[in-house]
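Checked the freezer inventory, then went back to the computational side. Two predictions to log before the end of the day. The first one is the construct we discussed on Monday; recording sequence and tokens without edits.
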Amino acid sequence: MTVYIVQEMRGRDLSDALAFGELEILLPSNEQTSYSTQPTLKHMNGVLSRFCDDDYLLLAGDPAAIALAAALVAKINNGKFKMLKWDRKESKYFPLHVSLNAPVRKT
């Protein structure tokens, strides 16, 4: 199991995420997605090509990079993936499961 951290967050303790797998950072803290997303997509696609049902995406960093990473893992893993969301009240990560293939209920 691997936890893919979208972007390094200097000074942030990510040790709670270790309960979900080995940590791997996709982008360094000083890198931002520029007006051309292709270099970021190319880099992320290479790393995330191994993403599977056992892995998690940790949502941290540049919102544009988070959106790109989520889109990529959904494409790579047939529309489904798991992500970790930080809960400030509990001071820990909670897993969220996403399936883009599940029917959406109309309200």
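The second is the one RB wanted added to the comparison set:
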Amino acid sequence: MNPDLALVFWSLALLEAKHFLCDFVLQTRYQWSNKGIYGHPGGILHAGLHAFGSVPALLILGPKAPWLAAIVGAEFLVHYHIDWLKERINKRFALSRDKGLFWAVFGADQFLHQMTYLAILAVLASALAL
């Protein structure tokens, strides 16, 4: 395997592990119950944990500080708004775990987060000419 491709692979693996930890292990009721309230500290905390949790995975690729800061900031904004939108849709359509549409919206939320990680790695790999 190309050494640069291996670095991208391991970076993605760490992003996936971070996502699991931040969304399913570390996320508290305070965070998930307030993500639908725009600007609420619970949603900001959740998105912030995701953004800063990505730093070790991104450092593997060796980006300069401005790139790292821009990507962490962008991930924060994207993650925050994906979660906020999911919660707004759930509320608007009164979705609960016993409705199929709830799981489709949840799956779309998770899919968008995964696509965010791929976009981050594509941008970094291109910028760093990996």
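For RB: The chain has a mean pLDDT of 95. The chain has six helices and no strands. Let me know if you want it refolded.
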